[in-house]
Input
Amino acid sequence: MQFPEGPKEEVKTTLSAKFFDELIDPIRQILEKHGATLEVCSDARILHFPAGTMKQVLYPITQLDRYTITLPDGYELSESTSFSGKNIVMFALDDFPEWVQRKYGKKE
Output
């Protein structure tokens, strides 16, 4: 099923809820591979994107705001807002090293 596309806007940074410390390096490597960077703060993670990165709302609108973030090289991330108002940035599991895939869901 294809949903209508929402408006796009350029995005330079996004704030993400804190994720497990052991994922900081793998996420940093994923981002750097695509020209982005990760800033680690005590209570949040800030993702800095290269010029030309676009953020697009996903329809249909649900109780949670949902977006696709597309970097200039075509790499895509997902972002949603939790019920508590925190932004959650999600990466495809296949983009992580094998040990992360095994630990967080990919079955052998």
